[in-house]
Amino acid sequence: MRRLNFFLLLFLVPFLISSGHKHEYYVSVTNIEYVQKEESVQIITQIFIDDFERMIRERFDERITLAIDNESILVDDYMTRYLTDKLEVTINNKSQKFNFLGKEYKEDIAYCYLEISDIKAISSIEVKNRVLFDIYPDQQNIVRLKINNKNKSYLLIPDNDNCVLNFN
């Protein structure tokens, strides 16, 4: 039953994320792909703009508004700081730091682009994703991994906020 719910949620996420109305579900999607020829792990995190904005206002600056023409230059810094705190990636038992490459807004979603460079090979990866758990107790974070020609998806919740994929 839990597996059926997971696949149903996975199927519905694109529809939930693209609605123009205030959403009833608190979900983020993080895609992580290892690009061997570039020796990099590329990460795209999708978060509802209104949820991200609420978090930034509560944690950093109550005057911030996202996705406007004259958005504060501090937004990238706030996003970087928050994601660095809430999204942890460990590769081959070594904690990794990612570079925040930028963001863009599409409809009601903020897409944050991150990269971990100089990764020669991956024998294991662990992801801890606590994005928005601090403001939404019902928040769920989907993590999709595409590593070494293997695809795996995980549904993370506050009581189970990490996933591990081994290749040994």
From TrEMBL:
Pfam families reported in the protein's UniProt record: DUF6702
Protein's recorded name: Peptidase E
Annotated organism of origin: Winogradskyella alexanderae
